[in-house]
Design goal:
single chain, about 240 residues, alpha/beta, nine-stranded parallel beta sheet, 8 helices
Length: about 240
């Protein structure tokens, strides 16, 4: 139901709440109380594998939505969550953070003023994470560093293959922390780092790390303040992956 207009909410509810509904991958926009209740029914059936919430209805109470969804998360089967940043400071998000077997967590658009410590504790402990995205996050570089360190310090070595931090305005310090992770990762395939504040020195460290890494297939550093004339030409000779500047 991605991008479905608000007037379709009653129809969406009637479909999702139908006893015969067997949806396993769900994307819903404009979530209001009725949609949240219908999603809760699917969660309680323990059949949902992917849940993408594009946004909360402008007239809905976020805490009420969080409570309805959160109460249905017990022993759920969802492996991939994509949620709007408006849900990141809620009980619903806290319950997601209790599940160490989540394979994908995407927090959409301009996350700010949230409990970075809670997220970092989860990133240090999760065991199955494959996709993590925090695009356009409006948090400072030091918190971005905390997040990257938490990923690097996870002793469970989750099979992380996709990292998306595009348009997070984090500086070269983040690039150096990312390079450390890249040197040790054996699973990372895609890194979206465009439109950040990665400088020339940071870019060089990342590119040097790619010489050690053997899993990366796509790296995007487009629209960063990098002087490519100063980057060692050898560091830009990539045979094993697609590189975007």
């Amino acid at each position: 139901f991605k991008e479905a207009p608000p007037e379709t909410v009653p129809l969406i509810y009637s479909i999702l709440s139908h006893p015969a509904c067997g949806v396993t991958n769900l994307s819903v926009p404009h979530v209001d109380v009725s949609i949240a209740k219908a999603v809760a029914v699917l969660l309680e059936k323990k059949q949902l594998r992917e849940l993408k919430i594009d946004g909360i209805h402008r007239d809905a109470d976020v805490e009420e939505i969080s409570s309805i969804l959160g109460n249905s998360l017990e022993n759920n089967m969802v492996e991939v969550f994509s949620i709007p940043s408006s849900l990141i400071n809620t009980d619903f998000f806290g319950k997601i953070m209790n599940d160490m077997t989540v394979r994908g967590l995407i927090i959409e658009d301009y996350a700010e003023n949230f409990d970075v410590g809670l997220l970092c504790d989860w990133l240090r402990s999760c065991s199955a994470l494959q996709v993590f995205a925090l695009p356009k996050a409006k948090i400072p570089t030091d918190q971005g560093l905390e997040i990257m360190r938490a990923i690097s310090e996870n002793p469970n070595n989750p099979p992380l293959r996709d990292l998306h931090f595009y348009r997070c305005k984090w500086t070269g310090d983040f690039a150096r922390e990312f390079a450390k992770f890249l040197r040790k990762s054996t699973t990372l395939q895609t890194a979206q780092l465009q439109q950040m504040n990665i400088d020339t020195a940071g870019a060089v460290e990342i590119l040097e790390a790619t010489r050690v890494n053997r899993s990366l297939t796509y790296l995007n550093l487009k629209s960063n303040p990098i002087n490519w004339d100063e980057v060692d030409s050898q560091a830009r000779q990539f045979n094993q992956f697609q590189f975007v500047t």
